Amino acid sequence: MSSINQIKEGFLFYEPKNYNEEQVKYRSAQFYHELNGRRSIRQFSAKEIPEGVLENMIKAAATAPSGAHKQPWFFGVITSPEMKKKVRDAAEKEEYENYHGRMSDNWLKDLEKFGTDWHKPFLEVAPALIVIFKQTYEETEEGKAKNYYVNESVGIAAGILVSAIHKAGLVTLTHTPSPMNFLADLLDRPKNEKPFLLLPVGFPEDDTQVPLLKRKGLNEIMKYY
Predict the structure, then answer these.
(1) For the segment 84-101, what is each residue's pLDDT rounded down to a tens digit?
(2) Would you call 127 helix, strand, or coil by DSSP?
(3) Is 152 helix (H, G, I), strand (E, B) or coil?
(4) Cα Rg, the chain, nearest whole Å
(5) Distance CA 178, CA 42 (A)
(6) Separation of alpha carbons 152 and 179, rounded Å
(7) Residue 187: CB partners within 8 Å, gap ≥ 6?
(8) Is the peptide bond before 179 cis (omega within 30 degrees of 0)?
(9) Residue among 124, 144, 122 nearest 135 (CA)
(10) Where residue 112 falls among pLDDT bands split at 50, 70, 90?
């Protein structure tokens, strides 16, 4: 066997999709058009999420690339009404402080078009909350081990998770109560894990309305060099 076909120890051959040119164009356009319908939603139905869906979406998120393949993420899934209430109470306490002193006037003005305030009822109404944690380092039998590009790795995983939620026909909101340390306390997570993002997940309420927004055009966000 020639060296070009020999596989290195610890490796396997990648299996390319081998789509033709038209398929590549179609699939890229289809994916864009599907994701272009994604919106951040704050009005959730209490309808239950089918069994296995949350697990599939989190498995999809965990396919994200990560520095040195350390996979520095953990997903806490909250479905208990009692725990959701605790999360809401703690989040609203922080959000009240944000809206009454922590946020700048410019920040508050930028939020006006969304009609938001410190009340966060969706944290109890949504059938599930997913808390994404970033693992700032790894705990091993030998002690602490460094993780690499943690924010970048977890951010990519979060993006894939948001896409997977939309692909399944569900909706979410990237919620970032600040500070978020109360989530680690409530879920009793270890010291090496820090809350990164809170995602309420579910089906939209009937007749949900979203702000009339416009995404930046391609000429504003891309340039060939």
Answers:
(1) 999 999 999 999 898 998
(2) coil
(3) helix
(4) 21
(5) 18
(6) 20
(7) 76, 78, 131
(8) yes
(9) 144
(10) confident
